[in-house]
Amino acid sequence: MPEIRRMEESDLDEVAAIERASFPLPWSRNLFLRDLKENKIAFFLAVRDRGELVAYGGFWLLQEEINIVNVAVHPDHRKKGFGRLVLDALLKEGQKQGATIATLEVRESNKAARTLYERLGFIQIAIRKKYYSDNREDALVMWLNPIPNMKELN
Ligand SMILES: CC(C)(COP(=O)(O)OP(=O)(O)OC[C@H]1O[C@@H](n2cnc3c(N)ncnc32)[C@H](O)[C@@H]1OP(=O)(O)O)[C@@H](O)C(=O)NCCC(=O)NCCS
User: Fold this and answer.
1) Which helix (H) or strand (E) segment is 127 a member of?
2) This model's pTM is above 0.90
C-alpha cells in the first residue's frame, strides 16, 4: 500500500528530481523549502510506494478556496492512480481546513492533467493568455465548486 503524508524537508531531493523531469519551468528545491517552512497557507503531501517517492502535490489555502499549485507523478509511475490519489487527498484536506472551492491552472496542451481534473469534476472557467513564459502557452483556469463530500467518495 502506498503511504501518503505531509511533505518534509527530507523529501525534497526526490521531489526536485521529479519536478525537473515533469515541468518545463520546474520549482526549485528552495521554493518548496520556503513553502514548507515559512508559508502558513501552504500544504503539501508526498506519496511513497515501497519507500520510493512517487508523487506529490500541494495547495495554498485562500479563505474558502484551495489553489492547487502543484501535482506531479514520477515518470516511471504514471497511469497507476497516484495522480488521482494525490488530488483526492488534497481535496479532502482542503475540505478539512474549511475550503469549499478548489482552483488550479493547467497548460492547454496538458491532456493527461486536464483529463484527470475533468474526471474529478473540475470545469474550465477562464483562460490566461500566453501565461507560461517558456512557450507563451495559454493556461486554463479550472475549478471544482463545490468540492463534493470527499468522505462519501472514498
Ligand atoms: C498529470 C499527472 C499528474 C497524472 O498522474 P497519473 O498518476 O499518471 O494519473 P492517474 O493514474 O491517477 O490517472 C487518473 C486519470 O487521469 C487521466 N490520465 C492520466 N494520464 C493520462 C494520459 N496520459 N492521457 C489521458 N488521460 C490521462 C485518466 O483519465 C486517468 O483515469 P483512468 O485511468 O481511470 O482513465 C501526471 O501525468 C504527471 O505528473 N504529469 C507531469 C506533471 C503535470 O503535468 N502535472 C499537472 C500540472 S497542472
Assistant:
1) strand 123-128
2) yes
